[in-house]
Amino acid sequence: MEKLIALIEKGKPFFNAIARNKYLKAIRDGFISVMPIIIVSSIFLLVSAVPNVWGFYWPAEINDVLMKAYNYSMGIVGICAAATTAKHFCDAQNRDLPKNNQINFISVMIASLIGFLLLSSDAISFTDNGVSISGLANGYMGSKGLLTAFICAFATGIIYKFFIKRNITIKMPEQVPPNISQTFKDIIPFGVCLVFFWGFDFAFRNIFGFCFAQGVIQVFQPLFSAADGYVGLAIIYGAMSLFWFVGVHGPSIIEPAISAALISNLELNMAMYQAGEHATAVLTKPLQDFVVAMGGTGATLVICFMFAFLAKSKEMRAVGRASAVPVCFGVNEPFLFGAPMVLNPIFFIPFIFAPIANIWITKFFIDVLGMNGFMFSLPWTTPAPLGIAMGLGLQPLAFLLIPALLIVDFLIYFPFFKVYDREKCAEEAEADQAEVAQRAAQKQAAMNAAFQGKADTASVATGAVAQAAASMAAEKKRAAGQSMDEESAGNATPAASDDAAASASSSTTDAAGNPYAALDGRRVLVLCQGGGTSGLLANALAKAAREHGIDLETAADAYGSHLDIMPDFDLVILAPQAASYFDDLKADGERMGVACCVTRGKQYIDLTRDGEASLAFVAQQLGI
Questions:
Q1: pTM of the model
Q2: For position 360, what pLDDT does the model report?
Q3: Where does the record place the PTS EIIB type-3 domain (predicted)?
Q4: Burial status of residue 63 (CB atoms within 10 A of its CB: 0-12, 13-18, 19 or more)
Q5: Distance CA 441, CA 418 (A)
Q6: Which of 58, 306, 339, 381 is most buried per CB count within 10 Å?
Q7: Strands, E assignment, 505-546
Q8: Which has the closest alpha carbon to 393: 261, 274, 260?
Q9: Mean pLDDT of all residues in 67-90
């Protein structure tokens, strides 16, 4: 097993390069940006559809009002993703361009959005009561159009970079205001994008007879179906856990490839359920958040509580109890690095297999027992049991699935937990014995010193007499020197003496009373993958700063959403699971004049638990 881990670790540079790939990052960040749409729209869907499970149906007019909010948000999530992905891809492109020749991300977002509409919508027209009405069919503007949205975003960004990098733009005189000059600078790349998408759409429709978004779905549908099988699910989520085990953030590598399926399957399940059919899609976003990652990657909810309440080891109990609350909300980095689970050979098998077992059990409930798949999306920080129950629409089988998952996870982890607990107890017993031996040695040394002291009493007394005589001579000499200093000091003005004393007193008070006074007014941003782990350190810093009376402003965010706010901070701290992005973050920091640093796993967790250490760390990074 250790050889396998060593082999995987050798591949970390390659995995980190994949995670840093600007195309995958743009998909991931663009997908994260539209998550509020998916979550909030699901609230209206929950109110509309959940009562149906218990035999209650809203009147048609009320249901139409509820579904309007859903259709006008989730129904256009593809349009929004085309814009957000283009924005994040543009940020990555700008990193390679000079500061004085950057791509206008607003123009890119608009161009990508228009390109998406050209490739994914059909014109419709009809007559209602003698009035001619025309519009756009929205069949592929929602989750079905996500893949097309990503393609449009990349094509737009590439076209813009080609023209901006080579200064193929309309240049205005220096006297023209910058906002007007930027408008003319964008005309050529925007026009090329519009003509490109228009021409491609015209050719594609004439060749195949349907829109490009429909063609993309047809091409990728076999892959989505394969990913929804037992083997496909095991490969996807086994790989995600495997990457995390060696310290590489697995979702950053895996999720961009399946993000379209995660959302489209969610909407597909709802459509099948509303049509009275069995919702059979397994691979969905809430399944990943609450079943596969129950308590966090590795399904660590159960093992964390085993540490907290079943362990005999003091260290394990302390780690488990300190991590229990974050793990309940899906933030398990304190446990992953504190236990540790990452790179711990004992937990290699359960860390990989528990998520796979969870998803296989869920698939069994769907395929064999007839449970409907996940239809509702909730924030990923929702406690897993509640997320499962709500995401499945409070189906009766959901309340059987939850204990089944918890029991299976317990059985998978328990043997490995016992082995680790015995090892830690043995280490602690050995450490206790060493401490007892050290105390005994110290006590014996003290006794020996006391015995030796009695033997040397006479010599000590003699030395004391000689030392007293020397002290009296030195005192006479100091007294003579002091009278000379006072005479020379009489020529100094009283005001100058008072100012100097006050200055010295002030300096001493600052240094002794508040060692972090120099941090007053500074701003620190902490970044991680999803914005959960970063909050732990940001809160620890804020609490420690308040205790010292320091006005230190802290904030937490997800990497990828930071570029717009980054210039407002003095220091950006990168959490360990996002360490693969540090080179890009450092480049952004140098461009914006912001200090940046990255932390290691155990170091980061220690900082979140020690406010004094976190302040000292910030002061060190800022050179204070």
A1: 0.75
A2: 96
A3: 521-624
A4: middle
A5: 35
A6: 339
A7: 523-528
A8: 274
A9: 92
**How does pLDDT run across 485-503, given as a tens digit for each residue?**
433 333 333 333 333 333 3
The backbone torsions φ and ψ at residue 526, rounded to the nearest 5 degrees and listed phi first, read: -110, 130
Cα 306 from chain centre: 25
Residues with Cβ < 8 Å from 597, sequence gap 6 or more?
Answer: 571, 572, 573, 574, 621
Contact 151, 216 (CB under 8 A): yes
What is the longest distance spanned by two Cα atoms in the chain? 124
**Over the stretch 371-420, which tens digit does the pLDDT of each residue have?**
999 999 888 889 999 999 999 989 999 999 999 999 999 999 999 999 99
Q: With 0-12 CB in 10 A as exposed, 13-18 as middle and 19+ as buried, what is 180? A: exposed
pLDDT score at 354 = 96
CA distance linking residue 248 with residue 11, whole number of Å: 10
Q: Please say if the pLDDT value at position 224 is more than 70.
A: yes
Catalytic residue numbers read 528
CB-based contact 386:369 (threshold 8 Å): no
The three-state secondary structure class of 132 is strand
Strands (E), 98-163: 123-128, 131-136
What are 157-203's pLDDT values in tens digits?
999 999 999 999 888 887 777 778 888 899 999 999 999 999 999 99
**Which residues are 557's β-sheet partners?**
527
First to last CA, the chain: 45
Nearest to 77 by CA among 284, 264, 281: 264
The H helix count followed by the E strand count for the chain is: 26, 6
Identify the pLDDT of residue 81: 94
* Tokens encoding 308: 């907290």
How many angstroms separate the CA atoms of 543 and 538, rounded? Answer: 9
Cis peptide before 340 (omega within 30 of 0): yes
Q: Any idea of the CA torsion for 417, 420, 424, 427, to the nearest 10 degrees?
A: 160
- When mean pLDDT is compared across 70-84, 511-525, 597-611, the lowest value belongs to 511-525
SS3 label, residue 42: helix
The string of pLDDT tens digits covering residues 121-132 is 988 877 777 777
Angle (nearest 5°) at CA 363 between 333 and 147: 70
CB 576 within 8 A of CB 342: no
Interatomic CA distance for residues 212 and 205, integer angstroms: 7
